[in-house]
Amino acid sequence: MSVVARLQTRLRRFIWPGWATRVLGSLSIPGLILATLFFAASLTPSLIPRTDDVQGVLSGLSLAAGYGLGVFFHWLWSYLELPEPSERVHNTLVLIAGGGAALIVLMFLWQATEWQNTIRELMDQEPVDGGFPVRLGLIAAAVFAATLAVGRLFQLLVRFLAQHLRRFIPRRLSNVIGVVAAAAVFWAVIDGVVLEYGLRTADRSFQQFDVREYPGAEQPTNPARTGSAESLVSWEEGLGRQGQRFIGDAPVAADIADFTGEEAFDPIRVYVGLNAAEEIEERARLALQELLRVDAFDRSVLILATPTGRGWVDNRAIAPVEYLHNGDIATVAVQYSYLPSWLSLMSESQYGHETAQAVFAEIYSYWKQLPADARPELYLYGLSLGALNSERAADLYDVIGDPFNGALWAGPPFRSETWRDITRQRQPDSPAWLPRFRDSSVVRFTNQQNHLDIPGASWGPMRIVYLQYASDPITFFEPQALYRKPEWMQSPRGPDVSPDLTWYPVVTMLQLAVDVAIGDAAPRGYGHVYATEHYIDSWQAVTATEWSEDELQWLKRHLAD
Length: 561
What we know:
alpha/beta, seven-stranded parallel sheet, 55% helix
């Protein structure tokens, strides 16, 4: 080789070293294209406003999903032995695809701020700043790199297993078994180590948190209050943090009387924590005994409130109905988990179901034995996972002879079979986010605007109201968004859903899954954060109170303050 030729070779290696050629050769052109499209689509708005770190994680996962899907298509092409470009052509196409991808990414990053601000404006939130695209881009790159590393590790494991199996079985069969075996190893690690250990650690952490006293809560001195010295449920152990919060947040008769100008009662609140008794049935019996101790069945209204996963009962839901009934009301709740609803749904959803059933059976059995004209009206309430378990608590065939009076279920999770069936059977001219069910005599739906007064419709003996926001991802998430457009995205859309929300295969499902995790971070009155004023409209319809519209507006302003 001449000196000139050697210099040219060295210059080419300096400008384009060998490792760069290897990197180009390893990249998938379909993977680059789909990764870019998925990343761009992930920047469009969904249901909940996203911070830069949340958006970065979502976009990184979308990048990885797109690239992985493209790699699969590339593999399928090769497996079918279809013609492929030469190494030189491949590298050239990778450079072209990479340049186009970079341009598209920059264009969509520039647009990302405006997209996020449209939904923030819709929900009266502060706009994001100019550094939003830069921060989310860096986070997305880090998430994509980590996901890609895991994918490469999986690929190496498949090759390792397949190579060892080829000594004994045909090549393609060894490849298939290698993939299955590697998937089994990864699942064993995820399920047996990450999930099991993580859930166990989370359960212990939330358990420790639950035994801490709620800030500002004081043990009641009134013997009629749960947690007092006379109560069957101890303040320190039997209530737990969420129980102390629930009891401490209750208004007193003087508060209600000052507002209404009439004589009022102290509302009764009974709560049984997870540590109050070992077995579910014991806690259910303890709840009934505590209700009897405080003469709860002498009140006009009795509410069975099913808590969320961690045992929380939303005071924004209970205080309004206590005001509406001038304190002549009792509410009972029994804890079934320490974990947040989404974790409880993953790990112990059956446990919440069993607890809600046991509590309903215990209290309903006593209630139906009382004279019909001398017992309180019986209602059910639940939010989120509490709504799901409250729905499951009562079997229609067990109560149809002597039904309870009604229910208010807020933010029902997408896994609710009853909610799904009712929505599926809605009247054709009603949207999925605000269904009209049959003649509206039993079930009605509402949201930020009161839709419960339906012209020409009359309530029957049982009144059930679903309070749901169109922007609530916990209600409207559906795995089928992976491959089809959800019905609630059809026109007309809910008032709190961005007009820029667009369905994209795979990406929209990832967006909604992330929205589920941050649904509680939405501003009040949107997402999964239900507002007092909307509870007031719902309870007024469910319990048929005789308050005028002016009085209801006055109560909304009072409790909002």
